[in-house]
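Hey, I was hoping to borrow your eyes for a little while. I've dropped the whole record in just underneath, so have a look:

——
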Amino acid sequence: MQAIVTAVSSSASHSFSKPNRDVIRLLAGLGVEGDAHLGTTVKHRSRVAKDPSQPNLRQVHVIHAELHDELREAGFDVSAGDLGENVTMRGIDLLGLPAGTRLRFGSGAVIEVTGLRNPCIQIDRFQKGLMKAVLGKDEQGNLIRKSGIMAIVLEAGEVRPGDAVQVELPPAPHRPLEVV
């Protein structure tokens, strides 16, 4: 299956959900133009409170559309942008990618995967029980965070629904994704 962008979203405020857009513009080293998380240093409020000088490894939030499908099947009313993601895509096992993977969009924009999104209590405020639904366990009992991945912007460009996505794995040995 061809990997494809199904939706793009952004918000200038620190709202939980982000409205869908026709196009977003990724700015190298900064993130999504006009988004509250744009910048070289961390913008997520909980991280700013700890250390506002930390590098922003969470410039772009990406979720797999398959998660929305799973959540709808479980009875949740969730669609693109609702969980705060900037890019929703289908056809890539995002959670299985190694750190340092590059995702190249049809426009030439490139992001580099930095790690996993750690869902916070706001997700349950959005819809009761959603936190539990985006967390799972593997065969060994290890926690699986299903709420997407985070990335930084390496090369600027526009991203829109329908754009193809190419995956470029980093050199081996691969590092598994950790929470950023």
